[in-house]
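User: We ran a pulldown and think these components assemble together. Before we commit to crystallization trials, I'd like a predicted model of the whole complex to look at. Sequences follow.
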Amino acid sequence: MPKQIFTSREFLLTGAIVLLLAIIATRFPAFIAPSNLANVFNDTAPLILLAIGQMIVILTRCIDLSVAANLALTGMVVSMINVAVPGLPVPIIIFVSVAFGALLGMVNGILVWKLEIPPIVVTLGTMTIFRGTIFLLSEGKWINAHEFSEPFKAFPRTELLGLPLMSWIAIAAVILFSVVMSRTTLGRAFYAAGGNPHAATYAGIDVGRTQFWAFTISGALAGLTGYLWVSRFAVAFVDLAGGFELSVVAACVIGGVAIMGGIGSVVGAMLGALFLGIISNALPVVNISPFWQLAISGSAIIIAVALNAQANREKGRIILKRAENAT
Amino acid sequence: MLMETDQKSAPTGAEPKVPVLALREVTKTFPGVTALSEVSLELFPGKVTALVGENGAGKSTVVKIMTGIYQPNGGQIEIDGSPVRFPTAQDAGDVGVTAIHQETVLFDELSVAENVFLGHAPRGRFGLIDTSAMMDHSREILDGIGASIDPRTKLKDLGIANKHLVAIARALSIDARVVIMDEPTAALSQKEIEELYELVEELKAQGKAILFISHKFDEIFRIADSYTVFRDGALVGNGAIADVTEAELVKMMVGRDVSQIFPNRERNTGDEIFSVDGYEHPTEFADISFTLRRGEILGFYGLVGAGRSEFMQALFGITRPSSGKVTIDGEDAIIRSPADAVGKGIVYVPEDRGRQGAITTLPIFQNVTLPSLDRTSKNGFLRLAEEFKLAREYTERLDLRAASLDTDVGNLSGGNQQKVVIAKWLATQPKVIILDEPTKGIDIGSKAAVHEFMAELAAQGLAVIMISSEIPEVLGMSDRVIVMREGRIATEVTGEDMTPETLVRHAAGI
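Assistant: Here's a predicted model for the assembly, 837 residues in total across the polymer chains.
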């Protein structure tokens, strides 16, 4: 058992993050001060939230490219609600953002489940539709800081035990979904449906319905993040978080989520997101051009995928060896 | 390819002495299984050799060795008497060995001409493919075999018979010397079969050596010159077709030493627990009715493609039958999904454990409990202690040896993966268990354990349906056998009537 822990992807990734922090510390020691690390975590919270949802979707052999557009659309919707009804309490806003995001996710899920359209096509389509809808709703106009109500903007920054609520929400989501994935029948169904859809079908699991729930969860988290994003930056517009879906997929891949499905964990997705978050926060302070950031993130993705592929290949060799030994 | 061939086409007319292609004591083993042991086979120009044997006798393996897909572990391949090796399929193709498969291996989205000339298309200027030459040559070849197919048609728009003709045209286009036909008539109508026979005659006349694999005795006697019989991966007989009778061939195919011992079990069957009435499917099977009693093992025998698995999948709710009724314990059962079937106490242990059996990315215990999560969870929350208990109980009963129930199934051997799959289904406490080729591809030791276990299941009052293509297994384990042919029940036999000959006759329709 201890051996398993030390060779697990999560352990290796934690090691990689520690190494990364150590390298950064040699040039800029203040980066690893607890207060700065807390800031980095808070900055990365939206990526963590989306990566958890994406991880579940990828686990079921799908992909959700519409998360950033969902985030932007839900963000615009709750912003407009806030502008129209400034007195509406924040908990209701949060509820609306989660429900609306989930609804958008369900649209993806239904198309994948009932019409059996490939997920990459479905979410590429809904991604564009969601962005277009924002334009229709907002007529292309921005909603700016002064138009939001104070409580709406204050929520994610409110501190509790020294951390902003934004961070607490990410932590809560990691814990909640770790439990869902390892302790509920739905979580088991996600792993089974992605690990071997045929076998899962024979075991009585409806693979399509399982994928539907994965998209719903991904959508709900994207919706929640939509509110957090617009309130934190106090702005909503059509291209909000444009291209962010690729960072989300990247976080999952770096976090050890197998792109062919069946393998992945919530903690892995979080670590993958943190890895990217640290890079994007550290590069400016150590005076590396932000353009390098893209190259470094890209290299990290390829290295992660190569390592995963390597791990799987070695596993195959072991099977053959054992089969030979068994006879 | 390690050999030079200076003459491309074999002499016709002359008395053939040297085989075009010969296998000499070829052996092929896979981890845990010996697929072929020291088999020899000779193919002569202008002659048709029929290769016969049960499912799993090693016929497909031989084809794959001849066409460079598998490498033999022992023995050698000879072309015109000189040893050669085929490290890749291309090498086999280069010396003129070509195979026309059961399910033709062609490309649906490409045109007929492109399929015929794939890999050796005529080149024009700048090394680009000369499309018009390719079309013309294709048309010539197709005309030559009497096929009226437009070479520009996409392959997917052709029927199966025409696809076969394209495959044959392809064989001719590469100047094949050896043509392997793997059950070419399996999907053809009577008229198309007649046309195929004529084509075979023509290929013979052109001096091609033909290996004809078939389960149908009438066609073997009609077109073959000689025969070779395989059983359990070994050569059991060969000679001229004129010197053998149908009965002798059947005997060679199925007769075997009593090396396999099946568990002795008391055959006391109980009340009727399960019945199927008039199951139909628009394309796969029709008119399937039978009953099953507690403690009974019902064997389903038939050739590959007889519709056994397709029927069982409909029974299990994977596909929908167009009509038919199922009763369990005297009550009508409506099965619309696998979950319904499992809920009613029917389980299906599929044949292809790689694709449909175990989830290799999950640990043993999670595989075992997957269909039983209703019992090991509460309000959607898993109870791990219950899961481990259930998994331990059933893996121990199957004598599964693994370091820990936390081990990923992907790390287990084939036999142990099979045990995980069986444990998974037993843990659902089924009333009826359908085992599809339960011992296919596993070693003798594991086989015996599975047989032992099947007997135990029946003794505990479970009704067992076993699909098997191995005659000794069917006869050794079953109380009753249903033989299927072409999607229908050909016959149902019990007691004295359960002989290898009856099964083979009904399965092949002779």
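Chain A touches chain B through 35 residues (CB under 8 Å). That may be worth checking against your pulldown data before setting up trials.

User: Thanks, that helps.
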